[in-house]
Amino acid sequence: MKSIKILMAVVLLLSALLSKAEIKNVSTENVKISGSCALCKEGIETAAFDKNISKASWDRDTKMALVTYDNKKTSIDAVLKKVALAGYDNDSYLAPDDAYAKLADCCKYDRAVKKEVMAEKKMPEHQHEAMASAEKTTPADADPLKPVLDAYYAVKDALVSSDGNTASAKATSLVKAIKAVKMDQLASEQHMVWMKVMKDLDFDADHIAETKEVSHQRDHFSSLSDNMYKLIKSAKPSEPVYYQHCPMAKEGKGANWLSQIPAIKNPYYGAQMLNCGKTTETIK
Amino acid sequence: MDFSKIPGVNAISTIIIFLLFSDTLYAQKIVRYDLYVKDTTVNFTGKLKRAIAVNGQIPMPTLTFTEGDTAEIYVHNELNEETSLHWHGLFLPNKYDGVPNLTQMPIKPHTTHLYRFAIIQNGTHWYHSHTGLQEQIGMYGSMILNKKKEPVIPTVPIVLSEWTDINPKNVHRMLHNASDWFAIKKGTTQSYAEAIKQGYFKTKVANEWKRMTAMDVSDVYYNKFLINGKNESQLSLFKPGEKVRLRISNAGASTYFWLTYAGGKMTVVASDGNDIEPIKVDRLIIAVSETYDVILTIPQVKPGAKPTAYEFLVTSEDRTRSASLYVGEGIKQLASPLPKLKYFEGMKMMNGMMKMNGDLDDMGMNMSLNQMDMNLVMYPEITGPLKGKKIKEMGIPAEMDGMKMDDKKKPMESGHTDHNMYNSNVLSSITTLNYAMLKSAVNTSLPKDAPVKELRFVLTGNMNRYVWSIDNKVVSESDKILIKRGENVRMVIYNNSMMRHPMHLHGHDFRVLNGQGENAPLKNIIDIMPMETDTLEFAATESGDWFFHCHILYHMMSGMGRVFSYENSPANPEIPNPKLAQRKLFADDRAFHFMAENDIATNGNDGEAMLQNTRWSIGTEWRLGYNEHHGYEVETHIGRYIGKMQWLMPFIGFDWRYRKMGMDEVETNLFGQRNTKDKRSILSAGVNYTLPMLVSAQAEIFTDGIVRFQLERMDIPVSKRLRMNLMINTDKEYMAAIKYIFTRNAGVTAHYDSDMGFGVGLTLNY
């Protein structure tokens, strides 16, 4: 019994010591951390907090944070790295893309520094794509539905990576592509199908664009895909289109999608079950 | 790390650099290095610890040669212990290979040893001490052999390593004594409480039923991971748009590293110093002692925009920590950290693979070349985040490859597992390098008409007792493997143990038969995962004795290796007394490891001490009461472990007890045998057997005819730091104890003992 008492005393003493302790060897620094709303403030301050070692207080208007830390135990860079890993760009570090993508919608601040790099980084690819499509669209018999199909693929790829934001953005381009189709360029059979499905296509694309919730997007993507299939089947696509099916999607009802590649990358599950499905038809 | 705290070190290195410089000026073909091996103190974690530095630095200096040079390396041993240096991946005369007691005698303290050999190859290699555990505390460095005409691209030698604040000898001892301190530090105890919380209770029970303890991908907890001796550093000299070639060696003693890059895909151009057809990957794992040449591209920025540095992230396989190198100048773009492993998924996978007899069952998957990674069930980035049971139940559909899928079978209905279930490149959009993707840049076929010698090896091991072996024999238990110059040696290696092993062959490159035909890649180390079979072949062109071993330092020191010996080799002048050398070589895996535990409790003092090696165990248990009524007893057992899994241990024992009970009070055991136990000094023989659930069953017969059966289960992981012990025997003795682990060497125990009653105490262990 005696030993239990001693133990309890030790525990009490320890907890008393711990609760009294605070940050020692204090250094403070003002640093810029990107963010946009109250949720960001919480996210930034949580990421910077380490009991008795570091803390931060972030101002939403100035985007400046006052970081207080124990200079024997950590450094301003170490604190800022943690903040960046939580998704917030700052003076020293840029957040990983997936950490940024995980932020709440209100917190998706404008990534100024990142854009300069990214824009340039993607440039060669864009140029390449632009050139490639330019080559293909200049001939007189260009496929008028190709922009729609390409935009559809972009939405699908975003869903494969379960990225609601990108899916929404890409769906917006899809809506534009649908509106831009010149019906007079369509063959008569295609024209008929187009008239039938256009409204539904537009409806589903609109809904995917409106939300950032992936599950909702996927619901619409299923009917969008069915209509796309009807449309593409009536046409003669310039490149083969793979019509693919996952029996598990929509809680076992199954769902379809079109893909530019034969390999299965499931837009209904993403990484969770990336390869569920099979190609049921190849449209050439 | 702060070397400036050591006075004189900087001055010395300057002088050495000067010396080197002057040497290279005068001799064009001979390149001389002087390496001064010296004790030092480092501070990687806030604590000063002993390490070994060469020329005042950790890692050791990068040695650079050009193909055709002659290397002259003077090793000045300023330590108070023996040392040696092995040139990893180099083709050289056997006597300069640097394995103490095999190719040379150890370099004695305060002597100088010369390694002199021609550089007849090119590529990224490294060098390290082959003596004891010196490699763990700083004796590793990069060795760059340039081609006469290297491609014009900026090149940076990179040495990956790890640091632990615990003395490596102690690490080795703790591993052998199944200490779970490292698991506690890593958060990988996989206790019952954690299992229940995450919904894996059944998995945990099945795991213990199959006599396995907590699973992990690596054994040792490290405090820091290092890139060229630093946890974080930046290469600011590179500009956006530039390419950089990293020549990476993994000098970690027991850590595999994941390599990822924030600036896009990496291009792998060489492995183990041999050029391969460039491959673009998102990530690769570098095995212990392996080398890779990787080209990174720093993304362009808009003209006038500020440059960005991109993180080259090196994460230990267990994902406890990482090290970073920022490539480029400016603000640092971070790479995504690798998410924590889902250990219980791994445990479930192990349960599926483990047969009751301790063999592994690959369920007909014919695994090889790292293409299927069973561990990926633990990788959240590929198999989804941990979300309780839901995801598990949905699982990964049995057939993953959409193209091959049979219409008749729906994915969820077909019960059998498909190969691609564990192929991360099929499962995800992340491209991970595997050995099947390596294609040599040149034709590597062996001489066609040479006779072929085929050798088969099974990698074996026992995690609980930390015995690692080949064909269930350690180095000291096996003969040298004789090979003849002029023949082609083919090795078929199957890993039947629960851990992956980076197998390294000294002095030769072998071809990895990976389906690339004539362009099979050349390597000198190959990582073999559990259940994998790999086929390797090499042309026997040398002479002398060459070590072939697992490069995980603690596995090698436990005896996981073999010696390839060329028949009719001339005597090695560096080994004047081969018998003595062999005895010293064998001493490594014959060494005994000591452990002790003592509980100073309110009702008595009890404890145990044990000396164990690969096969033998000498153990003593004592229970000392504080008065004569409680009694004093000491039991000593000397036993030998039998079989691959070492579940069986026959032993002989000696039992001494003294106790003052009431007048004529006698005890009767379950068999009606009577015994006063008042004063007993007696010999015994018996046998221990580990039952499912890790229960140790013991049957013992004493020379006075008394028989005792006992069941005991030690160290049941109740929660992260809580352990329970249970014991019962036919003498109607029983014991239950619960221990909370505070530190590596101390805990608090509460126990109830049929002899001594209830007690609380402080437990000290070593």
From TrEMBL, chain A:
Indicate the segments forming the DUF3347 domain, all copies.
Answer: 148-238
Where does the secretion signal sit in this chain? 1-21
Please name the Pfam families in this protein's record: DUF3347
Q: Does the keyword Lyase apply?
A: no
Reply yes or no: does the keyword Signal apply: yes
Q: Name one GO molecular function term.
A: metal ion binding
Q: Which UniProt keywords apply?
A: Signal
The identity of this protein, by name, is DUF3347 domain-containing protein
UniProtKB/TrEMBL annotation, chain B:
Top-level lineage group: Bacteria
Select a single GO molecular function from the record's annotations and give it.
copper ion binding
Q: Which residues belong to any copy of the Plastocyanin-like domain?
A: 37-149, 209-302, 454-567
Q: Does the keyword Hydrolase apply?
A: no
Q: What keywords are assigned to this protein?
A: Copper, Metal-binding, Oxidoreductase
| InterPro entries named among the record's database cross-references | Cu-oxidase-like_N (IPR011707), Cu-oxidase_2nd (IPR001117), Cu-oxidase_C (IPR011706), Cu-oxidase_fam (IPR045087), Cu_oxidase_CS (IPR033138), Cu_oxidase_Cu_BS (IPR002355), Cupredoxin (IPR008972), CuRO_2_CopA (IPR034282)
Any one Pfam family match given in the protein's UniProt record, by short name: Cu-oxidase_3
Q: What is the name of this protein?
A: Copper oxidase
Q: Could you tell me which species this protein originates from?
A: Dyadobacter frigoris
